[in-house]
């Protein structure tokens, strides 16, 4: 019995010890885990506060969204009301104006467009007028400056076709027995020798100026020598050919040096020299092209262009006149073809071909060559006409004007530079006078060839006469 009690007591004691130990361990563990549990609690608390704030903000946003939705609904309702009011107003305006909105818009656009075109036309006309005035003033200044800076002769030499003889007995030697000398001379030179009653002079006639000059030199040598017979004529002609060729070559080289061109084709240099014996209305063609080259170069420099190609084109613009008796076509076309075959630049070729408006000028160089050609040919003393052609032109001017209805009298004035037309006032009124002047001017342009310009003036005079008794 005692043993059993002791065993029970031991078990109870052991249980108590175990419980004490467990409680002690639990207390220690609770003391170690206390701060960790406190930090978690704080985090949970902050998270809860944040959730509360987010919930509050979400609530605010929801409320604002509801307010915005209500505002949009109100604005939409107001816009509908405004559209209805605008439609009503447009309908009232359309009824009052009798036009739809599209029609009114079209009429407004058309009116604005018409006014804009009128304003633009006025502005364009003013700009064009100002530009034309300034351009004419500048062009006049450039041309006058170029003319003033160019020193040239006012009278030019012409081809000599008359050979003076030491005496009238020399005419018999030139004719020879039964005319054999004159026949041999004409057959060898290709020049017609005219011997008339003119004292101590004979006339050489030929369409080729170089051939005519060669014949003149040969005949002059024969006259100086005094021995004239067919064999002597052939020898003199051969010697004259070499002399004239040398003169042509030297004249061409001098012209090239004067203009300042060093790379011209030898064939073009020879043709330039042949122009020394060619004249146009009494003006020496070689001096004309030299003068044109200087004028064109001066005007090109004033315009800021390169004067070298302009001078080159102006120097060669009449080169075709050296060949017009050998090749068919105008001298402008012939000259352009020769320049192209001699390797000239296309701008130079175009300026040569366009200097008489046979083709439309497309470059400033071509326009400057035209201007230089006109200035050189139109300056005072440059060209002259024969008396016969001058009288014929004046007569034709008067005939053209007299051929129109209502013309009473016609006077050609100022050496054919002006035509004064007197009309019958009962037949021609003021408007018809203007038309008549234009018609006469156009007919003169188409039927006559003349240098410069011809002014046509139609005079309509009304007179009232009464007699005092």
> What would you report as the Rg, rounded to the nearest angstrom?
55 Å
> Hey, roughly how much beta strand do the residues contain?
5-15%
Characterize the biggest β-sheet: 3 strands, antiparallel
CATH superfamily of the domain at 250-378: Hypothetical protein af1432
Number of continuous helical runs: 14
Oligomeric organization of the protein chains: single chain
User: Would you report the number of β strands?
Assistant: 8
Percent range of helical residues = 55-70%
Shape: elongated
Q: CATH class of the domain at 250-378, please?
A: Mainly Alpha
Describe the structure in your own words.
With 469 residues, the protein is mainly alpha-helical. Among the domains are: 162-241, 2-Layer Sandwich (Ribosomal Protein S8, Chain: A, domain 1), CATH 3.30.1370; 250-378, Hypothetical protein af1432 (Orthogonal Bundle); 387-460, GMP Synthetase, Chain A, domain 3 (2-Layer Sandwich), CATH 3.30.300.20. The protein is built from 14 helices and 8 strands. It has helices spanning 2-97, 101-149, 169-175, 180-189, 209-225, 230-259, 266-274, 285-302, 307-316, 331-341, 346-353, 364-378, 387-402, 430-447, and strands spanning 162-164, 192-194, 201-205, 279-280, 283-284, 407-413, 418-423, 455-460. The chain has a 3-stranded antiparallel beta sheet. It has a 3-stranded mixed beta sheet with strand order 6-7-8, with helices on one face. Helix 4 runs parallel beside helix 6 (230-259), helix 5 crosses helix 6 and helix 6 (230-259) crosses helix 7 (266-274).
